Amino acid sequence: MTDDTPWLNCMDGLQMNENEEKVEFQEPFYKFFVCDFFATGEGRSIWLMVDRWYGKGYSDPLMQFKQFIEDPYYYSSIEEVTEREFLDKYTRMMPNLVAHMIQQKNQANFSWQTHLSYNVS
């Protein structure tokens, strides 16, 4: 490398430091978003999204999540959660393949979204 700035290899989530040694990527590898909405008479709607995070300066996953939800009425229920919180609460709602891909942390351009609606009235 010709300059002193570290560079990021987005494919493996590792960053090179000044001594050309691999160190763990400081930002989370994935961003996790949840919109869990409940209203009497309307039931429960859950939107989930896992998105590969490349860092600042790239596309904003929160904006992608809002586009997925579509209706601003639900935006107040949006939360960005940690990987542990997401997996503890919502693993049962995702396919095994998606859970496996999240654990591997080597998926470039990975994004997964789902919307579940429950009405028990």
Describe this structure in words.
- Helix content is 21%, strand content 33%.
- It is an alpha+beta fold and 121 residues long.
- The chain has one domain (27-118).
- A 4-stranded antiparallel β-sheet has the order 6-4-5-7.
- Strand 1 and strand 2 (14-16) form a beta hairpin.
- The longest helix is centred in the middle third of the chain and has 9 residues, at 61-69.
- It starts with 7 loop residues before the first strand and ends with a strand.
- The model is unreliable at 1-14 (pLDDT under 50).
Main β-sheet, spatial strand arrangement: 6-4-5-7
How many helices? 3
**Alpha carbon gap, first and last residue:** 63 Å
The rough form would be described as: globular
Mean pLDDT: 80
Quick one: biggest sheet? Answer: 4 strands, antiparallel
Structural class per helix/strand content? Answer: alpha+beta
In percent terms, what proportion of residues is strand? 25-35%
The structural domain count equals: 1
Could you name the ranges where pLDDT drops below 50 across 5 or more consecutive residues? Answer: 1-14
What are the secondary-structure elements, in order, as H or E? Answer: EEEEEHEHHE
CA radius of gyration is 17 Å
Counting DSSP E segments of at least 2 residues, the number of strands comes to 7
Indicate the percent of residues in helices.
Answer: 10-25%
Entry keywords:
21% helix, disordered N terminus, 33% strand, single chain, 7 strands, 4-stranded antiparallel β-sheet, 3-stranded antiparallel β-sheet, alpha+beta, 121 residues
